[in-house]
Amino acid sequence: MASNVNPTVRRRRLGQELRRLRELKGMTAEEVAERLLVSQSKISRLENGRRSISQRDVRDLCGVYEVEDHRIVDSLMQMAKDSRQQGWWHAFGDIPYSVYIGLETDAASLRVYEPQVVPGLLQTRAYAEALIAGALPETATTDIEKRVQVRMRRQERINADEAPLRLWAVLDEAALRRLVADKQLMIDQLEHLVEMSHLPHVTVQVMPFTMGAHPGVNGQYAILEFPDASDSSVVYIEGVTSDLYLEKANDVQKYSVMYEHLRAQALNVEQTRQFISDVVKDYAR
């Protein structure tokens, strides 16, 4: 596939356009489903980009919405074709969070709060291997290695020469104190974290235990923003068996405000580097 075609993002853009056409027609998803003899959930999944959209789906929907401009129909059909191509991550087989990877691959910026572990984009290979093995004790070694390879490939966005991902990470102190494997591995990981924090497009802050209750106590989340203004921001919340994607403007706004409070309450960049260095000294004792 062409390197500039991201199937996940294509599905989102196509779904947003189909939703816009439905709303212009003044129809509900239920009414459209009844016309096409499909379930309402299918229409919803097509519009939120969680389901592959066939060219036949586009043709049928354009017929219901009475789209007469063939240029619009042809453009939507091409988007449907592009959306069914495979991203680089499909080469690794069945990845549970492939939708998120597709979004992250195309994102311009990522704001993440991690209460338990170092964010995946800032992990060393050794830390990633030990963390995944510990979190998924019944997973085969080959599957663990596959997940590690995907994580390392994702990190290429951080190290890209052109248009690298803008990353802002707030970590709870627990992420630094949690002993993954052994002390030397943690020293290497935390030193790597400090090194990465010196990149101009990477910001790392720590929320110390002494801060007490704060807006992040409810758990991990990430906010992805995209270079194309037509692509709405997404809040991603990772789950054990399924993940949650929030795209409504009101939801994204609430999480964005919460993140601003997190950044304001966390240690600043220089304080964070010193704090991490102090934790490294504790491991070295």
From TrEMBL:
Tell me, what's a Pfam family for it? Answer: HTH_31
Q: Specify the HTH cro/C1-type domain's residue ranges.
A: 18-73
The record's listing under InterPro entries reads: Cro/C1-type_HTH, DUF5753, Lambda_DNA-bd_dom_sf
Give the signal peptide, or none.
Answer: none
Query: What's the name of the protein?
Result: Helix-turn-helix domain-containing protein
What organism is recorded for this protein? Streptomyces monticola
User: Which classification does the entry list for the species?
Assistant: Bacteria, Bacillati, Actinomycetota, Actinomycetes, Kitasatosporales
